[in-house]
Amino acid sequence: MRKLLFPLLLLPALGSRAQVTLSTAVHLPGPGYVEKFRIFDTLGFNPGGSGPNQVWNFTNIYVYPGTFANNYLQPSATPYASSFQSSDFALQLQQSPATYDYHQNTGNQFQRLGNAATGDSIVFDDPEIHFFLPMQYNDSLVDPYAWAVYHNPNNYDSVSGVSHVKADAYGTIMLPWGTYSALRVKTTTTRYDVTHTGPYWTTTHNFRWFIAGYKYPVMLYEYYVHPPWVVPQITTGRAWVAVSDFLQNVEEVNGISGFSLHPNPAAESSTISFTLEESAEVSIRITDLSGRVIRTIEKGKIAAGFFEERIDLEGLAAGLYAVSIHAGEKMSVRKLSVQ
Predict the structure, then answer these.
(1) Is residue 20 part of a domain?
(2) Same domain membership, residue 34 and residue 149
(3) For the domain that residue 272 is a member of, what is the CATH number?
(4) Which domain does 35 fall in, by range?
(5) Of 9, 49, 51, 105, which is most buried by a Cβ count within 10 Å?
(6) pLDDT at residue 6 greater than cutoff 50
(7) pTM over 0.85
(8) Residues 328-331: contacts with CB within 8 Å, 24+ apart?
(9) Rounded Cα distance, 285 and 296, in Å
């Protein structure tokens, strides 16, 4: 089975604004932070579509036991700080603790300056921008980067590449322990290597899902596309999901409160209830595990305050569904089990 790293959330389902905005105040890491995650099996995994109002249903992924951590350190606490004097922090990866990635926060950009391990430092001539802030749906950036390592005429590596960073989708991400409104950031990086053994290229497709109030992506999936002469041509990189004690301060910011379905599990019908902070045009959607909209109930404009209505489940096959409330630009989602 193929594996990926996956930040692990063990919280009740949250609702938040459908369009999450990444901000420097929340989503920019620095020294002292610790990112905990778990690995999940990626065999047959599909990162889903792009665009607005997506439903990414990952409730059936298999998460492996064991927790990993990436540490964000002061550069001065690392053995290679002198090679990266403009670095604001170094990222130490638990799976490769002797390796350090050096980064710089420029106020609105999070860029990689290079890395070092076992006495060998690679300093980028042109840093690689990982993402920029603030960022919301459809924001994008194209960034070239380059570096070179020359040991001798028989051992050298010259690398250049281009990264395309785009917030390509927003919607609802369904994980085994909760449902969240999320913004997805896709980064496509094409890297060109010229070495003593000849030229080589690799394209990396990286998907990260962010939610309001949590600094790191709640889920990450990455795969590589290699040249045709490499077997296999497509390989899996990373995937991760955040650990519960690091999410205790995630706030519900949606204007839709008290959302409940009862009974749940249900057979012929279930009663939906919620409270709106302000009046809005409201629709209720039922989607299946693939994200396909099964039923839409248009309610028109509803006044602020408590709302309750029985919804008919006749014709729905037994299984798990997502019921979402759309109130203007706000959205909240709950799982519904139909028997």
Answers:
(1) yes
(2) yes
(3) 2.60.40.1930
(4) 3-69+128-246
(5) 9
(6) no
(7) no
(8) 328/280, 328/281, 329/17, 329/18, 329/19, 330/15, 330/17, 330/18, 330/254, 330/255, 330/256, 330/280, 331/15, 331/16, 331/17, 331/18, 331/172, 331/181, 331/254, 331/256
(9) 4
CA distance 226 to 116: 25
The encoded tokens of residue 243 equal 């650990």
Compute the distance between CA of residue 169 and CA of residue 186 in angstroms, rounded to an integer: 9
Whether 226 shows a pLDDT value over 50: the answer reads: yes
| Structural domain count, the chain | 2
Q: pLDDT for 63-116, tens place per residue? A: 777 778 888 899 999 999 999 999 999 998 766 768 899 999 887 888 899 888
Distance of CA 249 to the CA centre of its chain: 18
Residue 313 CA: distances (Å) to CA of 163, 168, 283, 339: 46, 33, 16, 10
- pLDDT for the residue numbered 4: 52
261 pLDDT more than 90:
no
